[in-house]
Design a protein that fits this description.
Chain A: This is Lipid-transfer protein. The structure holds two protein chains of two kinds. By secondary structure, chain A is of the alpha/beta class. In chain A, 32% of the residues lie in helices and 20% in strands. Chain A contains eleven helices and twelve strands. The N terminus of chain B is likely disordered. The chains are: A alpha/beta, B alpha/beta. At the A-B interface, helix 3, strand 3, helix 4, helix 8 and strand 8 of A face helix 1, helix 3, strand 3, helix 4 and strand 8 of B.
């Protein structure tokens, strides 16, 4: 990892001004991706009174491997209504990175508003198997190590290092799903059994629900943000970093990429009161709490986090949206939002959001 | 940075008003200082996917005389992941591209992705997030069969027929009917581009015995598109090192400067869509010309690298991009204006008709435009090229990305 540098000040003040998401569900057989997405886009636009033609830049995140066909995102564009033609881009990444691209576009001063959306339907296939296709195609993917098995390796490494134990992991699950009782969009909430071991030491209760969902965010710069939103969630910093792909060369009990991203986003300059972490497995919250230096006073995953709803490709963007929504409601003044991608937290994004002083 | 020191209070006191939004403090100019390509071929069985992309990246670094440590971030693009059977391959490629500990973004905007990827990278510099960025696009099409990969039957949607040619052939026919262009124009484009490719050591197809008669005698694939008027399926990668003004000042070789860049999208299918000359393409070009101060593209632009996967798209795009009036594009082709020694050379590198690693094809157009204004295009250099347009499109003629690069830094 390069030596940490001081966080640069963004060229322009940019804020999250609206957020909407689906009710995340185990299946949505009756809906196409665009049908799932469209109500979310309508809701997020309605929050600001903007129409598609008012938006300066649109960016989305999704993956063909969930849809099972090439160019799947082109049809989702129908949900936006890209006519007259729009300035638009797409990342084959979680929507949090689509938001990052939109943020850079806003920084250039070319546009003042951006629509960001993401969606994923895990229900048509076996997502545990699908995610093995992300791995090194020559040396690892042929072995089909599934996503739960890899997360279990990480959990075992944490237990071996004395960083956690099975009861502590169970407590993370219990707390997350209890928090989710206040989240009407969540898929798993309330009392959820620890369950049998899925892959030791992880039990089914340590794993995220598999489900379908979509989310959308609107970004705006400067005065435009104030016009569109009562209390914008200003992005004080946002950064993302990737680690080596090979699990054998990484220390799975730590997340240097999350720490560096947080440093660059200015997360350590002042404490946050809230953190929305994209930790699909209980053990990954342990890693992230350490890397992000989150103390006892921080409200972690008040939405229930990815353990309550984990629509792949949207779950990271939802963390930013949930953090912004809390700031908008006045429940937070400074929040950290995190997104991850790849096996065992290989790639991490951190955003620091703030409301204006009250 | 301390948020408390920011002028939040002054803004907090200003009511929601029609006041202009906070201006950015000015975009940083973006320069291309390194370009690298692999020798494009049908199948690079000698290298892995990682080996392929690293080869192009290293060449770009060598051109810029920089090392991996000089790169702040990596922006990578490619077309559908199914082409190689690797989901979100940037995760696996992080090590090969020296991205460990750095930000890595992966763009996918269909066939326009090579151009879009470069433009996403330019935002990082223009927005002053990073000083020097490596951007790269690739496709290793020998890992699968791209034509059938593009022919998935989708329930309740129009079938794309057999490959992209089946989709685009009716639109070529519509162009011919609309303009009355003679049947031979397509073969002229193919004959020109394949001869240009002979001057480009990185081009995939090097048909030394090419003749116009051979092109015109080649089998009809998707009427009116003949076999020799279609793009090949290639393995290849293209990389560029983009940097800010300070980086360009340190560059050992001339920089190419971005004067304008834009993306536009429209839906695949809708009532009233003009497949022959899509509005998104016109809007995208207009945005680029506005940024670059181009009043008359035919006069102000010296050469074009445009995305022509089927020969007839040269005259079609000449009109869409404003180089010819509607219905007149084929006359430029027919009269030799677009030849390498013509008044407006098009696809000096041999174009997509000679090299097509799909995900990289857009970036190759952007990079070849930059090579021209840097004066480093070798045998296919256009003398005195000062301003050159790079163009890419994708999907059902619905995604467009373009940039205009110049030999001089932008003035504004």
């Amino acid at each position: 990892m390069p030596a940490p540098r001081s966080a640069p000040r963004p060229l322009r003040d940019i804020a999250v001004v609206a957020f909407a998401q689906t009710d995340h569900r185990r299946t949505s057989d009756e809906l196409s991706e665009v049908e799932m997405l469209m109500p979310v886009l309508h809701r997020v636009l309605a929050q600001t009174g903007l129409r598609t033609s008012d938006i300066g830049f649109t960016c989305s995140g999704s993956t063909d491997y969930l849809a099972g066909r090439a160019f799947s995102f082109t049809m989702a564009l129908d949900g936006v209504g890209a006519w007259p033609p729009i300035s638009e881009s797409h990342v084959e990444m979680d929507g949090a990175w689509a938001l990052y691209e939109a943020w850079t576009k806003l920084l250039t001063g070319d546009v003042d508003t951006a629509l960001v959306y993401a969606y994923g339907k895990s229900s048509p296939g076996s997502v545990r198997d699908v995610l093995t296709r992300q791995l090194d195609p020559y040396y690892v993917a042929p072995l089909w190590p599934d996503s739960v098995a890899l997360a279990a390796l990480q959990a075992q490494a944490l237990i071996d290092a004395g960083d956690t134990d099975e009861p502590a992991l169970a407590a993370v699950a219990t707390r997350s799903r209890a928090s989710a009782t206040g989240n009407s969009h969540a898929q798993l909430r309330g009392s959820v059994p620890r369950g049998e071991h899925a892959v030791r030491p992880l039990r089914t209760g340590d794993c995220p629900p598999i489900g379908d969902g979509a989310a959308a965010v609107i970004l705006a710069a400067g005065e435009r943000a104030r016009e569109l939103c009562e209390r914008p969630a200003w992005i004080r910093g946002i950064d993302h970093r990737i680690e080596a792909h090979g699990l054998g060369v990484r220390d799975l009990t730590d997340s240097p990429s999350a720490r560096l991203a947080a440093e660059r986003a200015g997360a350590f300059e002042r404490p946050v009161d809230t953190a929305e972490l994209h930790a699909p497995f209980t053990s990954q919250e342990v890693v992230l709490r350490k890397a992000l230096r989150l103390g006892e006073g921080v409200d972690v995953n008040p939405s229930g986090g990815a353990l309550a709803a984990n629509p792949i490709m949207a779950a990271g963007l939802i963390r930013i949206g949930e953090a912004a929504a809390r700031i908008g409601r006045g429940d937070s003044d400074r929040a950290l939002a995190h997104a991850t991608s790849g096996p065992c937290l290989q790639q991490n994004l951190v955003a620091v959001l703030e409301g204006d002083p009250r | 940075m301390s948020p408390a020191t920011r002028p939040a209070s002054s803004r907090a006191s200003s009511p929601a008003s029609s006041q202009a939004t906070t201006p950015a403090t000015g975009k940083e100019p973006v320069a291309v200082v390194g370009i690298g390509q692999t020798k494009h071929v049908a199948a690079r069985r000698d290298v892995s996917i990682a080996g392929l992309v690293r080869e192009a990246a290293r060449r770009a670094l060598e051109d810029a005389e920089l090392t991996w440590a000089d790169i702040d971030a990596v922006v990578i693009g490619k077309a559908p992941d199914f082409f190689e059977g690797v989901m979100m391959p940037e995760l696996y490629l992080a090590d090969a591209l020296g991205a460990v500990g750095k930000p890595m973004l992966r763009v996918h905007t269909a066939g326009s992705v090579g151009g879009s990827t470069a433009l996403v990278a330019t935002n990082l510099i223009a927005g002053r997030v990073h000083g020097t960025v490596l951007t790269l696009a690739y496709e290793k099409q020998s890992e699968s069969n791209a034509m059938w990969g593009l022919s998935l039957p989708i329930p309740f949607q129009q079938p794309l027929l057999a490959g992209a040619g089946g989709f685009f052939a009716p639109h070529v026919r519509a162009y011919m009917r609309r303009t009355g262009a003679p049947d031979t124009v397509g073969s002229l484009v193919a004959y020109k581009d394949r001869r240009n490719a002979l001057k480009n050591p990185y081009a995939h197809l090097h048909e030394h015995d090419i003749t116009l008669e051979k092109v015109q005698a080649s089998p009809m694939l998707w009427d009116p598109i003949r076999y020799s008027e279609t793009c090949p399926s290639s393995d290849g990668a293209c990389a560029m090192v983009l940097t800010d003004r300070a980086g360009a000042a340190r560059s050992p070789r001339p920089a190419a400067w971005m004067h304008g860049g834009a993306m536009r999208s429209e839906p695949t299918l809708f009532a009233g869509k003009d497949f022959v000359s899509p509005q998104a393409g016109k809007d995208c070009a207009a945005d680029v010309y506005r940024q670059a101060g181009i009043a008359d593209p035919r006069r102000d632009i010296d050469a074009v690298e445009m995305y022509v996967p089927f020969s007839w798209y040269e005259p079609m795009w000449l009109e869409n991009l404003g180089f010819a009036d509607e219905g007149e594009g084929w006359k430029l082709t027919e009269s030799g204006v677009t030849e390498l020694d013509g008044d407006l050379p098009v696809n000096m590198s041999g174009g997509v008709l000679s090299t097509n690693p799909i995900g990289a094809s857009g970036m190759i157009r952007f990079a070849e435009a930059a090579l021209q204004v840097r004066g480093q295009a070798g045998e296919h250099q256009v003398d005195g090229a000062r301003r050159v347009l790079g163009h890419a499109y994708g999907g059902g003629s619905q995604f467009f990305s373009m940039w205009l690069v110049g030999a001089e830094p932008p003035t504004s």
